[in-house]
Amino acid sequence: MVIVPDRQFANCKIASGVIPLIYGGRDRDEEWGYLYGESKFGNYTAKLTWHDKQLTIDATEKWIDFLGFLFHFFK
């Protein structure tokens, strides 16, 4: 899923103040972090990558809808 982030998710540092994000790293063009969570349905990990003012989320299918709701809710 690719979204254009709002202020709360403009970069990894700002997003980590809103959600429990673990810093992954940075190279010349990208910055990435990992969102890890536990629920009664199991553990999940999502990779969030910022590149050219876009946020790409790599997660399993079962968590994409939840993450879409989360990012929409915190606009």
Compact overview of the structure:
The protein is α+β, with helices and mostly antiparallel strands. The chain has helices at 12-15, 61-73, and strands at residues 2-3, 21-26, 30-39, 42-51, 54-58. The model has no long low-confidence stretch (mean pLDDT 80).
Key words describing this protein structure:
single chain; alpha+beta; five-stranded antiparallel beta sheet; 75 residues
Oligomeric state as shown: single chain
Beta-strand segment tally: 5
The largest beta-sheet arranges its strands as: 1-5-4-3-2
Helix fraction bin: 10-25%
**What separation lies between the terminal Cα atoms?**
17 Å
Total number of domains: 1
Low-confidence stretches: none
Task: Give the strand content.
Answer: 35-45%
**Tally of individual helices:** 2
User: Main β-sheet: number of strands, strand sense, barrel status?
Assistant: 5 strands, antiparallel
Rounded average pLDDT = 80
The structural class is alpha+beta
Give the overall silhouette. Answer: globular
Series of secondary-structure elements, N-terminal to C-terminal: EHEEEEH
Radius of gyration, CA atoms, in whole angstroms = 12 Å
Give the helices and strands, then pairings.
Layout: E1 2-3, H1 12-15, E2 21-26, E3 30-39, E4 42-51, E5 54-58, H2 61-73
Antiparallel strand pairs: 1-5, 2-3, 3-4, 4-5
What does this protein look like?
The protein has 75 residues and is α+β, with helices and mostly antiparallel strands. It has one domain. 23% of the residues lie in helices and 44% in strands. The chain has 2 helices and 5 strands; from the N terminus they run βαββββα. A 5-stranded antiparallel sheet has the order 1-5-4-3-2. β4 and β5 form a beta hairpin. The longest helix has 13 residues. It is globular. The mean pLDDT is 80.
